[in-house]
Design a protein that fits this description.
This protein is mainly α. The protein contains nine helices and two strands. The structure holds iron/sulfur cluster.
Length: 190
């Protein structure tokens, strides 16, 4: 796949993103928007899609899985700019994550990131339809589940997913330390 297919541009429409996602899966045709939205909301499904790209039968089954229908209604929600921006951000972050081989952070880093979010004034409840649709594990006292369904008020991301992905970063500078984010990780904003 060429680099030109792998980057979500600020001017991309939903159909541009579906074409790029199709290319990511080695297909000439765009994927259905419900496939794109499910992949970015359910990392397990997204990983299965990308890792099945050389097995047409499995890929086809995933592309037409009945569960994808659940996301049909959220395709309509993309008419709202804020929902559309969320999808764009999530699609870009998924593609970035796929490029580093779907690496997830260690439990120690997950705990540290989660602690920081739990103390953060930007931690908030989901308000947008797309944020509410994202399947998250119930809030428990376990590492990675303490955050429940909360989202980051700055980037709008579902934190249960975001916290685990190596390619993700906190969008806010640390209030007391230089050159690090609120997760106490080196700032690498572009
Ligand atoms: S990702 Fe960063 S800014 Fe967002 S809630 Fe967590 S610590 Fe706060």
């Amino acid at each position: 796949m060429g680099e030109e297919h792998s980057i979500i541009e600020p001017t991309d429409s939903l159909s541009d993103m579906c074409s790029k996602f199709g290319k990511l899966l080695g297909k000439e045709e765009p994927v259905d928007a419900s496939v794109l939205i499910r992949a970015i909301n359910e990392p397990g499904y997204g990983i299965n899609l990308v890792t099945s790209k050389n097995t047409p039968e499995s890929l086809n089954a995933l592309l037409h899985a009945p569960q994808n229908k659940r996301y049909k209604s959220s395709v309509k929600q993309t008419k709202s700019i804020s929902n559309f921006e969320l999808i764009k951000k999530a699609a870009a972050s998924f593609i970035l994550w796929s490029k580093i081989g779907f690496l997830v952070v260690s439990n120690e880093i997950l705990e540290k990131r989660e602690d920081a979010c739990l103390r953060c004034p930007y931690l908030t409840d989901p308000t947008k339809t797309l944020q509410k649709m994202i399947p998250s594990k119930k809030q428990t006292g376990n590492i990675g589940e303490r955050i429940g369904k909360k989202v980051c008020g700055v980037c709008g991301c579902n934190l249960q997913n975001k916290l685990r992905l190596s390619s993700e970063s906190c969008p806010k500078k640390h209030p007391e330390k230089e050159d690090v984010t609120r997760w106490d990780e080196k700032i690498n904003y572009k």
